[in-house]
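Sequence dictates fold. Next comes a concrete instance:
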Amino acid sequence: MNLTPIEPTAVVEGYLDALAARDTAGARRYLVDNGFEYRSPIGHFQSADEFLDNMGGVAAILHNLGIVHRFAQDDVVCHVLDVTVNMTGHQTQRVVQLARVRDGRIVRLEVIFDASEFSRMIGAGGES
C-alpha cells in the first residue's frame, strides 16, 4: 500500500476544523502521542492529552474560528486567526498560531495573543 503523506498545512487545518467543531477527540488525531509541546501566554503543556483536557474549557465558549491568513514553509505552518468566544457577548480576538508538523502530526503549537482580557476575567475572581 502506498500512503501519500499529508501536507503540513492540511494537517494543521484539520486540527483547526476539529477545534472549531468542538471535537477534541478529532483534534487529538492530529497531535503526536509523545514529544508534544504547547505554549501560549496562559499555558504550557508537554502532553497532548493534558493540553486537550484544558482546551475543553475553551471549546465550551468557542463561537467561531476563522482563518485570516496562512503561511507555510517546510514543516512549519503559521495561521492568523480570528477567534470569537462567547463570554459576556461575543468577543473576537486576533490570534497567531505557529505549528510544527512531523510525519503527518503536530509536534509543537505556539499560540500568541493578547491575554489581558483573560487576566482581567480570572483576576476579578481572585485575591485583591
User: Anything to note?
Assistant: The first strand starts at residue 37 and ends at 40. The CA atoms of residues 13 and 94 lie 17 Å apart. The mean pLDDT is 87.
